[in-house]
């Protein structure tokens, strides 16, 4: 007998199993004492034991346990809990706008016009912003950015991306058909990895990633049950890549998997292409280098590169705009890629519109050009200043060694930790730099990411810190890090 929820079950046994029913999914009935009614129970189909085991292996340090604790502490502060600090400073993630970076006016004007075309009648918007908005809207279904686009992305945006790449790479040709617009760079990277992975046991796909890495790679490889093959960057040479280390890593990996791809994530992932601060340093795309190396490389090496609206001077992470360029891809695989991206219909159209503005920014002579350049330069100069400041201050702390921040938005200093602290961390089952960062968070309100989340050479410890907080706050943050490190070292020595 199956009870209805309203039936009174007085007199029924407290738990009355009626067996699993494939149709109802109900596996039992219990008696709710409070309401004196029957309550149906069912065994969960999805439990920690039955769920996809690869998902359980996924870790993403950038939003890991330290960040979860930081969010909790923020709540506690709001509730009036007394702490030795008044605010949490989040230096864990490259989220520029969250740290106060201002959006580029031209981009937001065009996006506002695209979102609410009535504004096209408004005199406060410059003519070039209106023209861009009209062009984007014309390319959208029903002239609305609320419509789905083609799965590979809006055609005129892909054409603009191709022209931008050609110009950036000194005339190396780019076919718009090789451009896929994506939901940020992350989406493109995961899609490419999905295409790559196959085989079992020693034939399982291996993917070579640099250590330290961007944790999206290890997370995606874990989810796809691919083999993560580490190669270590040389910290003593400013995190450069040694070919001998690549060769070591490759020949080791061949013993237990089938290494098929190399992710030089700090470089071929091009998301920081405008964030180059070191004097004499310049961004070179892998594609351009392949062409400089000659046709035996440029006509054969299969390369996927990724860019995004999230970083550089834009910092528009929330729009989830991005693109991927593939070259020398087997046409049959490319058809599979196109099919795969079509399953998700399309990347967000506002993100595509923003990507278009990034690759087709105001030109000299256009009304918005001067202001655009002023804002772009100001943001990049400030980041360069903060990169320098971070390295300088961190290197004044005994026990902290920081390489010059040559590009991107992060420092990754090495920290020496006392033996006693390492032992205490291990007793708690924590990585020593996790132990250190957690203590720093509790005592100072500063939220960093332990180096262990990015990978590091055995026996070395680091933390990752963004250079994004406003200069005044960054100075306070660095002073607090210095004070904490000294106190921590004293306490555990
Ligand atoms: C190296 C690298 N690649 C990709 C991404 C992800 O960027 P997106 O927001 O475009 O997905 C990040 C984000 O921090 C990154 O640091």
UniProtKB/TrEMBL annotation:
Chain ranges of the Aminotransferase class I/classII large domain: 125-479
Cellular component GO terms, alphabetical: cytoplasm
Gene3D superfamilies documented for this protein: 1.10.287.1970, Aspartate Aminotransferase, domain 1, Type I PLP-dependent aspartate aminotransferase-like (Major domain)
Cell compartments where the protein resides: Cytoplasm
Gene Ontology biological process terms in this record: L-alanine catabolic process
Enzyme class: transferase
InterPro entries: ALAT1/2-like, Aminotransferase_I/II_large, PyrdxlP-dep_Trfase, PyrdxlP-dep_Trfase_major, PyrdxlP-dep_Trfase_small
Swiss-Prot/TrEMBL keywords: Acetylation, Aminotransferase, Cytoplasm, Phosphoprotein, Pyridoxal phosphate, Transferase
Described purpose of this protein according to its UniProt entry: Catalyzes the reversible transamination between alanine and 2-oxoglutarate to form pyruvate and glutamate. Participates in cellular nitrogen metabolism and also in liver gluconeogenesis starting with precursors transported from skeletal muscles.
Subunit description: Homodimer.
Family to which this protein belongs: Belongs to the class-I pyridoxal-phosphate-dependent aminotransferase family. Alanine aminotransferase subfamily.
Protein name: Alanine aminotransferase 1
Organism: Esox lucius (Northern pike)
